[in-house]
Amino acid sequence: MILRLENGADTPIYVQLRNQIVMGIGRGELKAGESLPTVRQLAQDIGVNTMTVNKTYQILKLEGYIEIDRRKGATVCAIKAATAEFREKLEGELELLSAQACLKGYEKEEFLKLCSEMFDRMKAAGFTSKEQGQTGNFGEVIF
Hints:
The protein has 5 helices and 5 strands, in the order E-H-H-H-E-E-H-H-E-E. By secondary structure, the chain is mainly alpha-helical. A hairpin with a 4-residue loop joins strand 4 and strand 5. Helix 1 crosses helix 3 and helix 2 packs across helix 3. The chain is globular. The protein starts with a strand and ends with a strand.
């Protein structure tokens, strides 16, 4: 999986990292039971503080995307059913995206088509390339 982080972006690095790992799981680039790099290794690979990666992993753990074991490290969790809390969060994010789309002049059908395409992309067959630990361009890391 390739991580692309923007150091000068408005979105904090830990949020960018969290979002990309979630998308990697959604796309099938990261499978249930698969190990993630250690906090130290990932921090070194992407050039950030270990606390940034640790914060990301703790958020992913709280959200149920990964498990953390002292011996095994961080691993991707099996897919779990959505909770009421998740639905509430999803509704909030969709409300914001809908408002932004309306303000930018999107029609409902165009917005729904885009949502459908993105959802289908996440449900598509998994990604097969996996080269752990190799670094790409500035701000990128492949694992």
